[in-house]
Protein backbone atom coordinates (compact mmCIF):
# COMPACT_ATOMS: atom_id res chain seq x y z
CA UNK A 1 0.00 0.00 0.00
CA UNK A 2 1.37 3.42 -0.99
CA UNK A 3 0.55 5.57 2.03
CA UNK A 4 2.08 7.11 5.10
CA UNK A 5 2.61 4.82 8.05
CA UNK A 6 4.91 4.46 10.97
CA UNK A 7 6.00 2.77 14.15
CA UNK A 8 4.01 3.26 17.40
CA UNK A 9 2.56 6.71 17.92
CA UNK A 10 4.64 9.24 19.87
CA UNK A 11 3.36 12.48 21.34
CA UNK A 12 3.82 15.73 19.45
CA UNK A 13 5.96 18.52 20.75
CA UNK A 14 4.94 22.15 20.78
CA UNK A 15 6.06 22.72 17.22
CA UNK A 16 3.82 19.99 15.90
CA UNK A 17 6.78 17.89 14.79
CA UNK A 18 6.55 14.31 15.90
CA UNK A 19 9.88 13.05 17.30
CA UNK A 20 11.29 10.01 15.58
CA UNK A 21 10.85 6.89 17.66
CA UNK A 22 13.18 3.94 17.61
CA UNK A 23 11.84 0.64 16.36
CA UNK A 24 11.73 -2.55 18.45
CA UNK A 25 15.16 -3.70 17.32
CA UNK A 26 16.77 -0.36 18.12
CA UNK A 27 15.06 -0.22 21.52
CA UNK A 28 16.39 -3.68 22.36
CA UNK A 29 19.87 -2.51 21.37
CA UNK A 30 19.66 0.61 23.53
CA UNK A 31 18.58 -1.38 26.58
CA UNK A 32 21.99 -3.03 26.69
CA UNK A 33 25.29 -1.41 27.52
CA UNK A 34 27.16 -1.02 24.22
CA UNK A 35 30.28 -3.20 24.34
CA UNK A 36 32.50 -3.89 21.35
CA UNK A 37 34.12 -7.26 20.74
CA UNK A 38 37.53 -5.75 21.53
CA UNK A 39 36.46 -4.64 25.02
CA UNK A 40 34.67 -7.91 25.70
CA UNK A 41 37.83 -9.86 24.79
CA UNK A 42 39.98 -7.45 26.77
CA UNK A 43 37.84 -7.68 29.91
CA UNK A 44 37.74 -11.48 29.77
CA UNK A 45 41.53 -11.69 29.31
CA UNK A 46 42.07 -9.10 32.03
CA UNK A 47 39.82 -11.01 34.42
CA UNK A 48 41.70 -14.23 33.71
CA UNK A 49 45.13 -12.59 34.14
CA UNK A 50 44.24 -10.72 37.33
CA UNK A 51 42.80 -13.90 38.81
CA UNK A 52 45.94 -15.79 37.86
CA UNK A 53 48.18 -13.10 39.38
CA UNK A 54 46.26 -13.11 42.65
CA UNK A 55 46.34 -16.90 42.81
CA UNK A 56 50.07 -16.91 42.06
CA UNK A 57 50.71 -14.24 44.69
CA UNK A 58 48.74 -16.10 47.31
CA UNK A 59 50.50 -19.34 46.49
CA UNK A 60 53.90 -17.66 46.69
CA UNK A 61 53.11 -16.09 50.02
CA UNK A 62 51.86 -19.39 51.38
CA UNK A 63 54.95 -21.26 50.22
CA UNK A 64 57.35 -18.58 51.44
CA UNK A 65 55.66 -17.37 54.60
CA UNK A 66 56.35 -20.25 56.96
CA UNK A 67 59.95 -21.01 55.84
CA UNK A 68 60.94 -17.33 56.03
CA UNK A 69 59.41 -16.88 59.48
CA UNK A 70 61.16 -19.98 60.83
CA UNK A 71 64.50 -19.06 59.22
CA UNK A 72 64.43 -15.51 60.57
CA UNK A 73 63.43 -16.68 64.03
CA UNK A 74 66.23 -19.27 64.03
CA UNK A 75 68.80 -16.63 63.10
CA UNK A 76 67.62 -14.31 65.85
CA UNK A 77 67.41 -17.15 68.38
CA UNK A 78 70.94 -18.30 67.50
CA UNK A 79 72.26 -14.77 67.99
CA UNK A 80 70.52 -14.47 71.35
CA UNK A 81 71.72 -17.92 72.49
CA UNK A 82 75.31 -17.18 71.49
CA UNK A 83 75.20 -13.86 73.32
CA UNK A 84 73.63 -15.53 76.38
CA UNK A 85 76.27 -18.30 76.39
CA UNK A 86 79.08 -15.79 76.05
CA UNK A 87 77.78 -13.76 78.96
CA UNK A 88 77.22 -16.81 81.15
CA UNK A 89 80.74 -18.23 80.66
CA UNK A 90 82.66 -14.99 81.04
CA UNK A 91 83.74 -13.33 84.25
CA UNK A 92 82.84 -9.76 85.11
CA UNK A 93 85.94 -8.19 83.51
CA UNK A 94 85.74 -10.21 80.32
CA UNK A 95 81.96 -9.68 80.17
CA UNK A 96 82.46 -5.89 79.84
CA UNK A 97 85.06 -6.42 77.14
CA UNK A 98 82.81 -8.92 75.35
CA UNK A 99 79.84 -6.54 75.31
CA UNK A 100 82.05 -3.75 73.97
CA UNK A 101 83.46 -6.01 71.24
CA UNK A 102 80.01 -7.23 70.18
CA UNK A 103 78.81 -3.65 69.90
CA UNK A 104 81.79 -2.43 67.88
CA UNK A 105 82.29 -5.41 65.57
CA UNK A 106 78.87 -7.09 65.25
CA UNK A 107 76.54 -4.14 65.85
CA UNK A 108 74.88 -5.99 68.74
CA UNK A 109 74.34 -4.12 71.99
CA UNK A 110 73.33 -5.81 75.22
CA UNK A 111 71.95 -3.68 78.06
CA UNK A 112 70.19 -4.54 81.30
CA UNK A 113 66.42 -4.54 81.20
CA UNK A 114 64.97 -2.21 83.79
CA UNK A 115 61.44 -2.48 85.20
CA UNK A 116 60.60 1.05 84.00
CA UNK A 117 61.60 0.47 80.38
CA UNK A 118 58.94 1.54 77.90
CA UNK A 119 58.90 -0.52 74.73
CA UNK A 120 56.81 -0.67 71.56
CA UNK A 121 55.64 -4.16 70.51
CA UNK A 122 56.95 -5.75 67.38
CA UNK A 123 55.18 -5.24 64.02
CA UNK A 124 51.64 -6.54 63.92
CA UNK A 125 51.67 -8.01 60.40
CA UNK A 126 51.30 -11.75 60.03
CA UNK A 127 54.95 -12.47 59.24
CA UNK A 128 56.26 -10.42 62.20
CA UNK A 129 53.83 -12.05 64.59
CA UNK A 130 54.88 -15.48 63.35
CA UNK A 131 58.53 -14.61 63.95
CA UNK A 132 57.77 -13.35 67.47
CA UNK A 133 55.90 -16.56 68.28
CA UNK A 134 58.77 -18.66 66.98
CA UNK A 135 61.31 -16.70 69.05
CA UNK A 136 59.24 -17.11 72.18
CA UNK A 137 59.00 -20.85 71.59
CA UNK A 138 62.79 -21.15 71.16
CA UNK A 139 63.93 -18.71 73.87
CA UNK A 140 61.26 -19.29 76.46
CA UNK A 141 58.01 -17.67 77.58
CA UNK A 142 59.74 -14.55 78.99
CA UNK A 143 61.04 -13.46 75.60
CA UNK A 144 59.93 -10.03 74.38
CA UNK A 145 60.35 -8.71 70.84
CA UNK A 146 60.02 -4.93 70.40
CA UNK A 147 60.46 -2.22 67.78
CA UNK A 148 61.80 0.38 70.23
CA UNK A 149 62.82 0.65 73.88
CA UNK A 150 62.67 4.02 75.59
CA UNK A 151 62.06 5.62 72.17
CA UNK A 152 65.25 4.13 70.73
CA UNK A 153 64.30 2.27 67.56
CA UNK A 154 65.80 -1.01 66.46
CA UNK A 155 65.22 -4.73 66.73
CA UNK A 156 65.04 -5.44 70.45
CA UNK A 157 64.89 -8.91 71.97
CA UNK A 158 64.38 -9.29 75.71
CA UNK A 159 65.84 -12.46 77.30
CA UNK A 160 66.82 -13.71 80.74
CA UNK A 161 69.94 -15.22 82.26
CA UNK A 162 68.94 -16.88 85.50
CA UNK A 163 67.27 -14.04 87.40
CA UNK A 164 68.76 -11.24 85.34
CA UNK A 165 66.96 -9.70 82.39
CA UNK A 166 68.64 -8.13 79.37
CA UNK A 167 67.85 -6.36 76.12
CA UNK A 168 69.70 -7.26 72.94
CA UNK A 169 69.60 -4.50 70.30
CA UNK A 170 70.54 -5.33 66.72
CA UNK A 171 70.14 -3.66 63.38
CA UNK A 172 66.76 -4.23 61.67
CA UNK A 173 68.64 -4.96 58.44
CA UNK A 174 69.32 -8.41 59.92
CA UNK A 175 65.59 -8.97 59.65
CA UNK A 176 65.41 -8.93 55.84
CA UNK A 177 61.76 -9.18 54.88
CA UNK A 178 59.63 -8.01 52.01
CA UNK A 179 57.13 -5.44 53.22
CA UNK A 180 53.49 -5.20 52.20
CA UNK A 181 54.29 -2.12 50.11
CA UNK A 182 56.83 -4.10 48.12
CA UNK A 183 54.25 -6.81 47.48
CA UNK A 184 51.79 -4.14 46.36
CA UNK A 185 54.32 -2.63 43.95
CA UNK A 186 55.06 -6.02 42.44
CA UNK A 187 51.37 -6.77 42.18
CA UNK A 188 50.60 -3.45 40.46
CA UNK A 189 53.52 -3.87 38.07
CA UNK A 190 52.51 -7.39 37.13
CA UNK A 191 48.88 -6.32 36.77
CA UNK A 192 49.74 -3.37 34.52
CA UNK A 193 51.97 -5.50 32.29
CA UNK A 194 49.29 -8.20 32.12
CA UNK A 195 46.57 -5.70 31.16
CA UNK A 196 48.80 -4.19 28.48
CA UNK A 197 49.43 -7.66 27.11
CA UNK A 198 45.70 -8.42 27.22
CA UNK A 199 44.98 -5.24 25.24
CA UNK A 200 47.53 -6.17 22.57
CA UNK A 201 46.19 -9.73 22.33
CA UNK A 202 42.57 -8.52 22.14
CA UNK A 203 43.48 -6.01 19.43
CA UNK A 204 45.37 -8.65 17.46
CA UNK A 205 42.49 -11.14 17.72
CA UNK A 206 39.77 -8.64 16.84
CA UNK A 207 41.56 -6.77 14.04
CA UNK A 208 40.33 -9.19 11.29
CA UNK A 209 36.78 -8.98 12.65
CA UNK A 210 36.96 -5.17 12.67
CA UNK A 211 38.15 -5.19 9.07
CA UNK A 212 35.36 -7.58 8.13
CA UNK A 213 32.80 -5.36 9.87
CA UNK A 214 34.05 -2.29 8.01
CA UNK A 215 33.98 -4.13 4.67
CA UNK A 216 30.45 -5.38 5.36
CA UNK A 217 29.30 -1.82 6.11
CA UNK A 218 30.78 -0.65 2.79
CA UNK A 219 28.93 -3.43 0.96
CA UNK A 220 25.72 -2.42 2.71
CA UNK A 221 26.19 1.11 1.36
CA UNK A 222 26.84 -0.21 -2.14
CA UNK A 223 30.60 0.48 -2.24
CA UNK A 224 31.87 -2.87 -3.48
CA UNK A 225 35.34 -1.66 -4.52
CA UNK A 226 36.31 -0.48 -1.00
CA UNK A 227 35.25 -3.76 0.63
CA UNK A 228 38.14 -6.00 -0.47
CA UNK A 229 39.86 -7.95 2.32
CA UNK A 230 43.44 -9.22 2.47
CA UNK A 231 43.63 -12.75 1.08
CA UNK A 232 47.26 -13.28 2.07
CA UNK A 233 46.94 -13.32 5.87
CA UNK A 234 48.79 -16.03 7.75
CA UNK A 235 45.83 -17.44 9.69
CA UNK A 236 44.13 -20.06 7.54
CA UNK A 237 40.62 -19.56 8.98
CA UNK A 238 40.71 -15.78 8.50
CA UNK A 239 42.19 -16.21 5.01
CA UNK A 240 39.30 -18.51 4.07
CA UNK A 241 36.74 -16.01 5.40
CA UNK A 242 38.39 -13.13 3.52
CA UNK A 243 38.49 -15.08 0.25
CA UNK A 244 34.84 -16.08 0.60
CA UNK A 245 33.80 -12.51 1.43
CA UNK A 246 35.70 -11.08 -1.55
CA UNK A 247 34.11 -13.59 -3.92
CA UNK A 248 30.70 -12.75 -2.51
CA UNK A 249 31.19 -9.00 -3.01
CA UNK A 250 32.44 -9.58 -6.54
CA UNK A 251 29.32 -11.58 -7.32
CA UNK A 252 27.09 -8.93 -5.73
CA UNK A 253 28.82 -6.20 -7.73
CA UNK A 254 28.26 -8.16 -10.93
CA UNK A 255 24.60 -8.74 -10.05
CA UNK A 256 24.15 -5.03 -9.34
CA UNK A 257 25.81 -4.12 -12.62
CA UNK A 258 23.71 -6.62 -14.56
CA UNK A 259 20.57 -5.27 -12.93
CA UNK A 260 21.40 -1.70 -13.86
CA UNK A 261 22.14 -2.72 -17.46
CA UNK A 262 18.94 -4.76 -17.66
CA UNK A 263 16.76 -1.94 -16.33
CA UNK A 264 18.42 0.58 -18.63
CA UNK A 265 17.62 -1.74 -21.51
CA UNK A 266 14.03 -2.02 -20.34
CA UNK A 267 13.75 1.76 -20.29
CA UNK A 268 15.16 2.07 -23.81
CA UNK A 269 13.26 -0.86 -25.32
CA UNK A 270 9.85 -0.11 -23.78
CA UNK A 271 9.62 3.66 -23.66
CA UNK A 272 10.33 4.15 -27.37
CA UNK A 273 7.45 1.95 -28.61
CA UNK A 274 5.22 3.41 -25.88
CA UNK A 275 5.85 6.90 -27.22
CA UNK A 276 5.01 5.76 -30.76
CA UNK A 277 1.92 3.96 -29.49
CA UNK A 278 0.68 7.10 -27.72
CA UNK A 279 1.20 9.20 -30.85
CA UNK A 280 -0.58 6.64 -33.04
CA UNK A 281 -3.46 6.43 -30.54
CA UNK A 282 -3.96 10.18 -30.52
CA UNK A 283 -3.94 10.29 -34.33
CA UNK A 284 -5.91 7.19 -35.22
CA UNK A 285 -8.58 6.71 -32.54
CA UNK A 286 -11.70 8.72 -33.32
CA UNK A 287 -13.57 8.14 -30.07
CA UNK A 288 -12.36 10.84 -27.66
CA UNK A 289 -13.15 8.82 -24.52
CA UNK A 290 -11.41 5.71 -25.85
CA UNK A 291 -8.45 7.83 -26.86
CA UNK A 292 -8.21 9.30 -23.36
CA UNK A 293 -8.41 5.87 -21.72
CA UNK A 294 -5.74 4.41 -23.99
CA UNK A 295 -3.45 7.41 -23.39
CA UNK A 296 -3.95 7.04 -19.63
CA UNK A 297 -3.02 3.34 -19.80
CA UNK A 298 0.13 4.16 -21.76
CA UNK A 299 1.02 6.92 -19.29
CA UNK A 300 0.56 4.44 -16.44
CA UNK A 301 2.92 1.96 -18.11
CA UNK A 302 5.49 4.73 -18.53
CA UNK A 303 5.14 5.70 -14.87
CA UNK A 304 5.60 2.08 -13.78
CA UNK A 305 8.82 1.88 -15.77
CA UNK A 306 9.96 5.09 -14.11
CA UNK A 307 9.25 3.63 -10.66
CA UNK A 308 11.34 0.55 -11.45
CA UNK A 309 14.23 2.75 -12.51
CA UNK A 310 13.96 4.92 -9.40
CA UNK A 311 14.04 1.88 -7.11
CA UNK A 312 16.98 0.33 -8.97
CA UNK A 313 19.01 3.54 -8.88
CA UNK A 314 22.65 3.00 -7.67
CA UNK A 315 23.23 3.17 -3.93
CA UNK A 316 25.76 6.02 -3.66
CA UNK A 317 24.81 9.70 -3.88
CA UNK A 318 26.82 12.91 -3.60
CA UNK A 319 25.64 15.01 -0.65
CA UNK A 320 25.75 18.81 -0.63
CA UNK A 321 23.97 21.58 1.32
CA UNK A 322 20.38 21.86 0.06
CA UNK A 323 17.73 24.37 1.10
CA UNK A 324 14.79 22.35 2.35
CA UNK A 325 12.31 25.17 1.70
CA UNK A 326 13.43 25.59 -1.94
CA UNK A 327 13.00 21.88 -2.64
CA UNK A 328 9.48 21.98 -1.20
CA UNK A 329 8.60 25.09 -3.17
CA UNK A 330 9.67 23.34 -6.37
CA UNK A 331 7.68 20.20 -5.58
CA UNK A 332 4.56 22.14 -4.56
CA UNK A 333 4.55 24.31 -7.67
CA UNK A 334 2.72 21.66 -9.69
CA UNK A 335 0.00 21.30 -7.01
CA UNK A 336 -0.94 24.98 -6.78
CA UNK A 337 -4.02 24.56 -9.03
CA UNK A 338 -5.26 21.29 -7.52
CA UNK A 339 -8.65 21.53 -5.86
CA UNK A 340 -8.43 18.11 -4.17
CA UNK A 341 -5.36 18.93 -2.13
CA UNK A 342 -4.56 21.58 0.52
CA UNK A 343 -1.03 21.88 1.91
CA UNK A 344 0.20 23.67 5.05
CA UNK A 345 3.97 24.31 4.93
CA UNK A 346 5.99 25.26 8.04
CA UNK A 347 9.64 25.04 6.99
CA UNK A 348 12.17 27.79 7.92
CA UNK A 349 13.81 29.60 5.01
CA UNK A 350 17.35 29.07 6.34
CA UNK A 351 17.03 25.34 7.08
CA UNK A 352 19.57 23.35 5.02
CA UNK A 353 20.32 19.63 4.91
CA UNK A 354 23.03 17.43 3.43
CA UNK A 355 21.30 15.68 0.52
CA UNK A 356 21.07 15.25 -3.22
CA UNK A 357 18.62 17.90 -4.42
CA UNK A 358 17.15 15.81 -7.26
CA UNK A 359 16.80 12.69 -5.09
CA UNK A 360 15.23 14.71 -2.26
CA UNK A 361 12.75 16.18 -4.72
CA UNK A 362 11.76 12.66 -5.81
CA UNK A 363 11.19 11.74 -2.16
CA UNK A 364 8.87 14.67 -1.51
CA UNK A 365 7.06 14.12 -4.82
CA UNK A 366 6.39 10.49 -3.91
CA UNK A 367 5.11 11.43 -0.46
CA UNK A 368 2.83 14.17 -1.83
CA UNK A 369 1.54 11.82 -4.53
CA UNK A 370 0.68 9.20 -1.90
CA UNK A 371 -0.98 11.81 0.30
CA UNK A 372 -3.11 13.05 -2.61
CA UNK A 373 -4.10 9.51 -3.55
CA UNK A 374 -4.73 7.93 -0.15
CA UNK A 375 -4.98 10.80 2.36
CA UNK A 376 -8.26 12.36 1.26
CA UNK A 377 -10.83 13.08 3.93
CA UNK A 378 -13.92 10.88 3.63
CA UNK A 379 -16.20 13.83 4.32
CA UNK A 380 -14.71 16.48 1.98
CA UNK A 381 -12.72 14.44 -0.53
CA UNK A 382 -9.78 16.84 -0.06
CA UNK A 383 -6.31 15.71 1.02
CA UNK A 384 -5.09 18.06 3.77
CA UNK A 385 -1.33 17.73 4.23
CA UNK A 386 0.71 19.34 7.05
CA UNK A 387 4.47 19.70 6.52
CA UNK A 388 6.64 20.75 9.46
CA UNK A 389 10.44 20.80 9.78
CA UNK A 390 12.80 21.90 12.51
CA UNK A 391 16.49 21.60 13.41
CA UNK A 392 17.59 19.55 16.39
CA UNK A 393 21.31 19.30 17.18
CA UNK A 394 23.04 17.90 14.09
CA UNK A 395 19.83 16.69 12.48
CA UNK A 396 16.79 18.10 10.72
CA UNK A 397 13.48 16.46 11.61
CA UNK A 398 10.71 16.60 9.03
CA UNK A 399 7.10 15.49 9.46
CA UNK A 400 4.61 15.17 6.61
CA UNK A 401 1.14 13.98 7.59
CA UNK A 402 -2.29 13.72 6.04
CA UNK A 403 -5.74 13.60 7.65
CA UNK A 404 -7.04 10.47 5.96
CA UNK A 405 -8.24 7.22 7.44
CA UNK A 406 -4.85 5.73 8.20
CA UNK A 407 -3.99 2.05 8.05
CA UNK A 408 -4.29 -0.89 10.41
CA UNK A 409 -1.47 -1.57 12.85
CA UNK A 410 -0.81 -4.92 11.14
CA UNK A 411 0.20 -3.11 7.92
CA UNK A 412 2.58 -0.59 9.47
CA UNK A 413 5.63 -2.86 9.39
CA UNK A 414 5.14 -3.90 5.73
CA UNK A 415 4.30 -0.62 4.03
CA UNK A 416 7.90 0.01 2.88
CA UNK A 417 8.27 -3.51 1.47
CA UNK A 418 8.73 -3.35 -2.32
CA UNK A 419 5.56 -4.27 -4.31
CA UNK A 420 3.45 -4.45 -1.14
CA UNK A 421 -0.05 -3.04 -1.66
CA UNK A 422 -2.67 -3.11 1.07
CA UNK A 423 -6.38 -3.46 0.58
CA UNK A 424 -6.93 0.31 0.78
CA UNK A 425 -4.52 0.95 -2.07
CA UNK A 426 -6.16 -1.57 -4.37
CA UNK A 427 -9.65 -0.26 -3.80
CA UNK A 428 -8.79 3.44 -3.75
CA UNK A 429 -6.59 3.50 -6.86
CA UNK A 430 -8.20 0.72 -8.90
CA UNK A 431 -4.91 -1.07 -9.26
CA UNK A 432 -2.94 1.99 -10.38
CA UNK A 433 -0.32 1.67 -7.64
CA UNK A 434 2.75 -0.49 -8.01
CA UNK A 435 3.76 -0.72 -4.33
CA UNK A 436 7.15 0.95 -4.79
CA UNK A 437 6.49 4.52 -3.64
CA UNK A 438 7.41 4.18 0.05
CA UNK A 439 10.13 1.62 -0.71
CA UNK A 440 11.79 4.20 -2.98
CA UNK A 441 11.46 6.88 -0.29
CA UNK A 442 13.00 4.67 2.41
CA UNK A 443 15.88 3.56 0.19
CA UNK A 444 16.65 7.10 -0.98
CA UNK A 445 16.63 8.57 2.54
CA UNK A 446 18.88 5.74 3.74
CA UNK A 447 21.35 6.43 0.92
CA UNK A 448 21.55 10.05 2.09
CA UNK A 449 22.42 8.98 5.66
CA UNK A 450 18.97 9.64 7.14
CA UNK A 451 16.10 7.63 8.57
CA UNK A 452 12.49 7.22 7.45
CA UNK A 453 9.79 6.10 9.88
CA UNK A 454 6.04 5.84 9.28
CA UNK A 455 3.29 6.12 11.87
CA UNK A 456 -0.43 6.53 12.47
CA UNK A 457 -0.98 10.06 13.75
CA UNK A 458 -2.56 10.31 17.18
CA UNK A 459 -5.28 12.73 15.98
CA UNK A 460 -6.09 10.80 12.80
CA UNK A 461 -4.39 10.34 9.47
CA UNK A 462 -0.95 8.99 8.64
CA UNK A 463 2.46 10.57 9.01
CA UNK A 464 5.91 10.22 7.49
CA UNK A 465 8.84 11.18 9.74
CA UNK A 466 12.19 11.88 8.12
CA UNK A 467 15.51 12.63 9.75
CA UNK A 468 18.28 14.15 7.58
CA UNK A 469 21.76 15.39 8.36
CA UNK A 470 21.89 19.11 9.01
CA UNK A 471 24.27 21.03 6.75
CA UNK A 472 27.03 22.85 8.66
CA UNK A 473 26.86 26.62 8.68
CA UNK A 474 29.22 28.35 6.27
UniProtKB/TrEMBL annotation:
Membrane topology, as annotated: Multi-pass membrane protein
InterPro entries found in the cross-reference section: 2C_sensor_his_kinase, HAMP_dom, HATPase_C_sf, HATPase_dom, His_kinase_dom, HisK_dim/P_dom, HisK_dim/P_sf, RisS_PPD
Cellular component GO terms held in the UniProt record: plasma membrane
Transmembrane segments: 37-57, 183-205
Organism domain of life: Bacteria
Subcellular location field: Cell inner membrane
Region of interest: Disordered: 1-25
Domain HAMP: 203-257
SMART domains: HAMP (SM00304), HATPase_c (SM00387), HisKA (SM00388)
Record field: catalytic activity: ATP + protein L-histidine = ADP + protein N-phospho-L-histidine
Main location: membrane
Pfam families in alphabetical order: HAMP, HATPase_c, HisKA, RisS_PPD
The entry's keywords: ATP-binding, Cell inner membrane, Cell membrane, Kinase, Membrane, Nucleotide-binding, Phosphoprotein, Transferase, Transmembrane, Transmembrane helix, Two-component regulatory system
GO MF term list: ATP binding; phosphorelay sensor kinase activity
Entry EC no(s): 2.7.13.3
Chain ranges of the Histidine kinase domain: 265-472
First-level EC class: transferase
Full protein name: histidine kinase
Amino acid sequence: MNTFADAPVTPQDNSGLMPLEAGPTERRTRSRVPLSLFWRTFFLLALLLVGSILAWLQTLRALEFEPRAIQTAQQMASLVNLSRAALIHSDAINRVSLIKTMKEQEGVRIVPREPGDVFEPFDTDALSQRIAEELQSKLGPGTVVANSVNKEEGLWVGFTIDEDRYWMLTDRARFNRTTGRTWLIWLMTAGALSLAGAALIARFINRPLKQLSFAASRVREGDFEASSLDEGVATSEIRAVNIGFNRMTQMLAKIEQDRAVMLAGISHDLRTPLARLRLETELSVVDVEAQANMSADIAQLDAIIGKFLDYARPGSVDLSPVSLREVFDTCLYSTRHRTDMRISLDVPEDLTVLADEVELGRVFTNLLENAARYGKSVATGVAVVDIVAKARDQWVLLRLRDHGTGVSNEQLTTLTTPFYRGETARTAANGAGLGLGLAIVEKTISRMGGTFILSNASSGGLAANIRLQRAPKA
